[in-house]
Amino acid sequence: MNRREFAKLMGVSAVALSGIPLGVTRAVGQTKGGTLNTIIQPEPPILVTALNQQQPTLTLGGKIYESLLRYGFDLKPMPGLAKSWEVSPDGMTYTFKLFPNITFHDGHPLTSEDVVFSMTKVLLETHARARGVFGRIEKAEAPDPLTVVFKLKTPFAPFLGALDCTTAPILPKHIYEGTDYRKNPANAQAIGSGPFKLKEWVKGSHVHLVRHEGYYRPGEPYLDEIIYRIIPDSASRSVALEQGAVQLTQWTDIESFDVARLSKLPNYEVSTKGYEFFAPHQWLELNNRTKPMDDKRFRQAIAYAIDRKALLQRIYFNIGKLATGPISSKTRFFEKNLKTYDYSVDKAKALLDEMGLKPGADGKRVTLKYLVPPYGESYQRTGEFVRQMLGRVGIDIQLENTDVAGWADKCSNWDYDMTMNLVYQFGDPALGVSRTYISSNIKKGILFSNTAGYSNPEVDRLFEEAAVATSDDKRQELYTAVQKILIEDMPVVWMLEAEYPNFIDKRLKNVLSTAIGVHETFGSVSFG
Amino acid sequence: MTMMSIDAKGSRFIAVALAIFGWLVKFVAVVLIIATFNFILVHAAPGDPAQVIAGQSGGSDEKLLSQIRAEYGLDKPYAVQLATYLGRILSFDLGYSYRQQRSVASLIGERVPATLLLTATSFILALLTGIILGTLAGVRAGKWSDTLLTVVSLLLYATPVFWLGLMLVLLFSVQLDWLPAFGYVTIGVPMTAFERMRDILWHLILPASSLAAVYLAIYARLMRSSVVEVTHQDFIKTARAKGLKQGRIIIRHILRNAMLPIVTVAGMQAGALVGGAVVIETVFAWPGLGRLIYDALLQRDYPVLLGVFLVMSVLVIVLNLLTDAIYRVIDPRVSARAAS
């Protein structure tokens, strides 16, 4: 007896219990219709991605708010709202041509005015990451409804790489102009131009999106609706997947230790693609201001002392990749032929001895605190793993636990010895890498700045030149040089290029098509 | 005569009015003290909402932090923040959640039905079963059925509630596929009001039974010992000697007297009903108040956190009063003592 038969016996409507998408019809090539059930956790506070950039907001908001460009897995730009674009030879002027007939969910047409307004007014006010890029725009113009021209103050090569929907979502000017953006009552309706619009949000339960009939791409969206269920407990999320109640999971929905077991389910494929733009880079952050971590030999010793292959296997069950330096292999300008630190207890001990950091009577050379990031079970296990590995070379680690607010507070105010950090690279070293190492970004109280306090004028110079250089060859040369120095200095100990398993129902098509994966619009996603 | 009785009536009226007034003053004072404690407690935790948002956005700068801190009023001195907060409470304003862009009252209001449904169902379930099982065990004290009931209730009491919940899900949802594993209603399917009600009840079974299990154990154990104690009192012997039937003795004499400790404990726990059940709500993805509090705590959403705390404290005070009233109904001695 299954649930439906049991339900019938108990007099409960069987229709109400069936999880099969209703009303699926076949069109040419791709199937039209159907309901995609998936998970969102933790619950986003609001859905307007221009106002809040917490991870779940971006995942869900990607369906509602679109941007000028999309990016392939190799981070090459592809048409978004803009069907074509041009960059002037001096790298100062960017011209975009929009697709015709784009409309917002309220029926208003989306024009170049909305683009200029969003990128040079709203986002500068509300989006910390976008401020760093669009603050470089000197003049933005909308010569006709389908043309946008940006003139930069100085050349900035990564500009063309920062127009995805998590960085540059386009808002309706007619709703937001002249208002307090954060307090605009329209925020509750989340009006964008994406293929899906908000139908209902039952707090604590689910967010229900339905198709935007006026979407500009012919045939899209294929799905009728998407339901994001809020399931806070990881064991319950695994059950939801096993039962087929959801057809897609993303990020940390499924904990790494459950992946091997659930991968055996016959109706899902598992892919770690679609995080290339973020390229989350995980490292052991060492407070460079504290002794003995101010000595690069100590930092190198730690790099030798931790068996990162074992970490990847035992804690992350081989989901991820070993990190070799400051730039992820998924980000542009990664250099692979550089010094590596392979696991060696002897080399680690030799370096520590050379520093004069001899073990005491109890075998301990030094005792340091390790602040465990509160981002899930894997971080706890990683902390315990690091404590064990460093214990073997005489570095005594004391684990300290806290919650997100406590971690962010301590980390950003330099109140820690060691912690694990995970930082997004956003496709270009000038956007997501340099911020961790340049001296001008040592800012107390600011998270994801140069919190370790590393400072090297040569590194500062190289990063600065690379950001404004216009040719890719020149940029590669500069970034290779900076990677060489950083790998020698080891300001932080790079651990892993984090990856996340997406479980995708085998009937689904086109779920992962760009470098932002599950954050994409999902207009082209379909059942079969 | 007439004059005197009017005088007596008048003075009694004044006495009652004074009592109510005195009680109201105490009530307001207690609420304000609790609110102040809540405020201090909530702000004592490290970090603030600005840092949480930065920590989950992958990027941050001075402007972001100062914007958010200004929104929450965190840029003002603590004393000013506290004064503003207390002033708002006195004007019955629970505040505004900048994070969720909603008033705290509406955030709490929309969670209350789901919460009460879950907690009240399990409370009543636990209370009824606990009293019945405890009485059965108590009157059979020392026999094998008593031992069995004691062992089972001890086991339930010692079982972590999340584990029990997950095991029930594994059995009834994953293995047997009889009951839904999570959520409070089937989403995205058109239903009539009646179908919807049935559907919600259907989703309620697992979380309510898991939550009831723990409380059931408490009530059963308490009821058992209370029944055992009362059974040995003289008036029960008298009742037996009178030749009353066992059933009548249990219901009229033992139960009524043995109930008092249960009412005390139940009254205290009823206050927690509104707070929801964080663990069970999390395991079963039940959209209740418990999760609202938990999320608000993690996000340092101070207005929501303080709002829920306040509502809960007021309810605890009110429920304590209610418990006292029930006492008087069950045990006339209490009101007699209070009168003298």
Write a short abstract of this structure:
The complex is a heterodimer of chains A (528) and B (340). Chain A is of the alpha+beta class and 528 residues long.
Largest interface: A-B, 69 and 68 residues
**In what range is the share of β-strand residues of chain B?**
under 5%
Describe the strand arrangement of the main beta sheet of chain B, using strand numbers. 1-2
Helix content of chain B: over 70%
Order of helices and strands of chain B: HHHHEEHHHHHHHHHH
Strands across the major sheet of chain A, in which order? 15-19-14-18-16-17
Query: What is the strand tally of chain A?
Result: 22
Largest sheet of chain A: 6 strands, mixed
Oligomer: heterodimer
Task: Compute the separation of the termini of chain B in Å.
Answer: 25 Å
Radius of gyration of chain B: 25 Å
Number of helices of chain A: 16
> What is the mean predicted local confidence, pLDDT of chain A?
93
- Please state the overall shape of chain A, judged from the principal axes of the Cα atoms: globular
Task: Give a description of the structure.
The complex is a heterodimer of chains A (528) and B (340). Chain A contains 16 helices and 22 strands. The two termini of chain A are 30 Å apart. Chain A has helices at 3-10, 14-17, 55-61, 112-126, 128-134, 173-176, 234-243, 256-263, 296-305, 308-314, 345-355, 377-391, 404-412, 429-432, 457-468, 472-489; strands at 25-26, 31-32, 35-40, 69-71, 77-79, 82-87, 93-98, 137-144, 147-152, 196-202, 206-211, 225-230, 268-271, 281-286, 320-322, 366-372, 395-401, 418-423, 492-498, 502-505, 508-509, 526-527. Chain B is mainly alpha-helical. Helices cover 79% and strands 1% of the residues of chain B. Chain B has helices at residues 2-44, 49-55, 62-71, 78-90, 104-139, 144-158, 161-175, 193-231, 234-242, 246-273, 278-283, 289-299, 302-330, 332-339, and strands at residues 96-97, 102-103. In chain B, strand 1 (96-97) and strand 2 form a beta hairpin. Classes of the chains: A alpha+beta (528), B mainly alpha (340). The interface between A and B is large, with 69 and 68 residues.
